[in-house]
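Thread: quick sanity check before group meeting

JM: Hey all, I'm pulling together slides for Thursday and realized we never actually wrote out the predicted structure for the chain we discussed last week. Dropping the sequence here so it's in one place. If anyone has concerns about the input, flag it before I start.
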Amino acid sequence: MKIDDPENKIIVIYNHGGWGQSRSDTEFKYCKGSTVAGVLGKMSGTKVKNKEIVLWMNNELWKAGKSENGGTEMKCAMKHKFNGKMLGNTPPWYDCMLGPATYMKIKGLESNFAQFNRAKVNKEIAETFIKNGTPRNQIFISGQSCGGMGSLRMEALYPDVFNAAISYMPNCWDRAENSPLRKIQLDEIRSAKHIDALVFQSPVDGEHDYHSSAEHLRWMGDISGVTLIETPGHSDETGKKIIINGKDCRVKKKMKGGWDETNDVNLGHKEKAFTPKDPALKKAMKKKVAGHYLISRSCFEYYIPTITDYIASKL
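JM (edit): ok, ran it. Output follows.
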């Protein structure tokens, strides 16, 4: 993490999404074209108040443990059965996921939910940059999806670690209507009296996560210190395009959520546990493109000056 002339650098730490990964995963292999690094990386080298911005892609998040894809979410389902069945999204499963890091392979972690362990990892990264000569006031935390939610969580719970957060499409929970994972994280944000953050939300987010679009999260903009930006929705009723400042974002990923569902806890995480309240709406929305990953599309470069101006305003 050593960089040249550290006292004149502004470090923007970027955290990717997901529920945790192993060390062998390579999230940022490519840094060109329509990728997160290729788009947000355009801010690197920008001078702000005679200091240079550096986007630092955080590949240390494996230290927070692995919850998905065979991680603790599976262990919790196996070891904490519901009515004798191995299921996620059930009361004992949530208790396990939100409990101590019983099934994490890495020692010294707080929770079986990797999202809650990211704070420790990011604190250590910040302290390393500070030790190497970058002033704390010049270190920002950012991220998308779970990374975006984690950035907000850091600023809400540990406001003295970073200057501010830059959060892109924040959500990090499951699709169940009454998910404790959703409630706990959003309650942490709601209870904060002040959060220094620039937050981007999409009205057509499209992730599985229950009520993850801007419609349900705009209240974040009412929190003291938060600047909220809502990206454009679909350009027309077909939902085939999202256009930012006249540029087609060329999004390919389709919406995986955004419609209301009821869920049968007795069926846990299984697909048949979820019943759309309006099947026709679900069918229509699944054909439309999702806004969750806009930061990996070149159209999002339109917001780079907004981001750098925000950083300048915090120095």
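AS: nice. The domain at 6-314 is CATH 3.40.50 (Rossmann fold). The mean pLDDT is 94.
JM: adding both to the slides.
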